[in-house]
Amino acid sequence: MKSIEVKNLKKQFNTTEAVKGINFSISQSETLALLGPNGCGKTTTIGMLLGLITPTSGNIFINGQELNYKDHQFLNIMNFASPYVELPKKLSVLENLKVYGRMYLIKNFKEKIDQLIEDLNLKPFLNKRTGELSSGQKNRVSLAKSLINDPKILLLDEPTASLDPDTGDYVRSYLEKYKKENDISILLASHNMDEVTRLSDYVLMMKEGQIIDHGKAKDLIDKHGRENLEQVFLKLVRQKNEY
Amino acid sequence: MNIKRSSSLMLRHFYLIRSSFPRIFDLIYWPTVQIILWGFVSKFFTMHSDYFNNVAGVILSAAILYDFLFRSSISYNMLFLEEIWSRNIINLFVSPLKISEIIMALTSSALIRTMIGLVPAAFIAIPLFGISIFELGVPLILLLFSLYLFGVTLGLLVTAGLVRFGPSFENVAWASLFFIAPLGCIYYPVEILPSWIQPIALGLPLAHIFEETRNILVNQTVSFTNIYYAIGLNLIYLTLAITIFYRSFVSAKRNGTLVNIGE
To answer: Does the structure's ipTM exceed the value 0.85?
Structure first.
């Protein structure tokens, strides 16, 4: 069974077609990367998958069940993290985790929080206000929040943006380990091509609301005769519309 | 509706208030200043007017009740704006939190915030001006309940605007109550208004609430008709506000506003 299946998904805002009938799926334990320039429809697509935006037409299936925008139950098995979305700054790290543990109705959430604190090494700044943390520390707390409900599907929007290489590597390594141990599916939107190459099993290239190419990162590099994914990205983004 | 899930949002605001002395101070400071200001104005009238000798506590009681309404409505808006300002709103909307649970959390948290402000101000008025709002007796509970319903109604309507139109609606949040205040007949009877405006004022629960407050304090009698009218009108407006609140989410999801206000 597919974790996520998207069929002919469209979104139109007034006269602008943000997403033009895209199709893709993510299998269990698979990481799918969504690549594309700014304004290509990535955020709109993620928004529709999270129930934040209602599609104009098309279907989304989560674990085989069609997404019902009136029933939020599907959000119990999903979670989301992005550096552009923050946790309340005035609350301490521990308070934030307690709030979200309760919000997701986590049984034994104290144990779950303890586990996340240990796994993501949050102890040194556990009682510090979230707004006073460094970008790297905030990122780890945001990741902890996104894993608090043991999601089966994790959506990550540029998870390592604005992080130094060391912290970025820490986060990527943790995600690799977490995915392996917990058998989860990940949808990753990123502009970091090395990250995409390292983490993803499959890549979708989007431009102007459409999927213009897809495949495994290595296959795309070979197919387009380039040295790395960044060069493939530049080639596809800069070429005239032939799709 | 899940009370535990809803209480998570209350817990978030409890942590916020607890962690910040300026926030607690802000909650208490404004109602207290308001009471002291109106207290002195009332005292001045008492000393210089025979008419006002009979209604010395009316203005001050009205000021306390109006402040209760103002705080409950503003608290509601503030709680939602806090989520926008802290860029946390997307985290709430991608959680399984239902709209009914958000409404319940905001309504309960706003009441707590309002009481933090009102209770000290009401007690300060007793030794300072010899006026106790508690003289309104049992009907005070019904009047406060009615005011709170209207505060929540306004809060819901403004929050619906914030959801639908984004943070640009923030200015309306601050001004919302001032639009209605002249029609609320807080400090004067309905008859003061031009005759063509009076039916509009009587269509609001506020006019009935403050008419009854004056009636209790001046005539020492209770007319439950005003109270029932106020509660009845409140229930109609509240139902309408909840419907608009739900509709604003549907509209925001269609227009993509939820994503925009969160980032």
So the answer is: yes
